[in-house]
Amino acid sequence: MASNYGASADNTRRPSNFDVETPKSGPELNMSTSCTKILTIVGAIFIIIHNGLRITEHVMARSHEKHGGGFNMTRYEELNPTDIANRWEVRRSNRAMHVFDEFAGIIGWACVVPVIVIGARILTRGNPTSYVQFAVPMFSFAVLIRLLEWTFNMGQRTGSDWMSSWGSMAVNSGEKGVQLIQVLEVAYELARMRDTWFFAMDWLFIAGGIFCLSLAAKQENLLTRGHYIMGFIIAGLGVLQWIFDLLMLVKWMPFMIFGGITRALVGIILFPIWLVWFGCILGRYRGTELNTLLN
């Protein structure tokens, strides 16, 4: 009798703000998985634009060297004032490309994190101790580092571009001492090198996050074989990109070329394909099947 009274009380009492209702068909989850396709496409497009413009900007800067043979590191180390003034002229002409490159990267990588969150929840199969959950903070740290990098670069680049146009930075061919344009160039490069170790770690976190997702996908057999193999390849190239970025501080020219190649492979080709493919796979899970995986 007591149990009947309890049932009656439960049926008639007012709902509490702390009550949790079990979804019948999981419409919010269906909405989430359908949105992943849009997020992955938008993210992939902007990441391709970001990396493509970044590589194009470097190529244009090197190709506009007025002395014969293009960019030469030995000549650059001489800090010839005329060469430096020309370099700043090219940088100012590429300012719009640089600004759009930065914003494209922010938008692209910001779209990645929600997709990784949903994918990690599926791959954990409700196991709160699963190592695949490390993928979420890893990608979050990577995006945070990129946001900081792009924010610092925007201030450094726009400020130094403005300073390079000052009349006091004009080259005086008759002066034999150190000129202000040389000081600006050294300060600019030192500021960039100072943050290299920190800003290069985004590739390490991205590699680690993709490795966790791919290893879990392989063990749980939830994603396609080709997708997690591609993930392992991207993780390896991401580690190489991190190494190349650091080694540029030791030997700039060869490792700049190696870094550009890996950036093109990962940022323009492999990762956008992996990301869109990942969103399409997540979009296949619907209704009770997705609820079973997430709960």
Keywords for this entry:
295 residues; mainly alpha; 13 helices; elongated
Give the SSE layout:
Layout: H1 2-12, H2 27-63, H3 73-77, H4 81-93, H5 95-110, H6 112-124, H7 135-164, H8 180-194, H9 196-199, H10 201-220, H11 225-247, H12 252-282, H13 287-294
Helix pairs in contact: 2-5, 2-6, 2-12, 5-7, 6-7, 6-10, 6-12, 7-8, 7-10, 10-11, 11-12
Tell me the total number of β-strands.
Answer: 0
Q: What integer is the average pLDDT?
A: 79
Structural domain count: 1
Molecular shape? elongated
The string of secondary-structure elements, in order, is HHHHHHHHHHHHH
Summing up helix and strand content along with how strands pair, one would put the structural category as: mainly alpha
Number of helices: 13
Strand content: under 5%
Helicity level: over 70%
Cα-atom radius of gyration: 26 Å
How far apart the termini lie comes to 34 Å
Which residues sit in consecutive blocks of at least 5 with pLDDT less than 50? Answer: 5-31
Characterize the biggest β-sheet. Answer: none
Explain the overall architecture:
This protein has helices spanning 2-12, 27-63, 73-77, 81-93, 95-110, 112-124, 135-164, 180-194, 196-199, 201-220, 225-247, 252-282, 287-294. With 295 residues, it is mainly alpha-helical. The protein is built from 13 helices and no strands. The two termini are 34 Å apart. The protein has one domain (26-165, 178-294).
Quick synopsis:
77% of the residues lie in helices and 0% in strands. The protein is mostly helical.
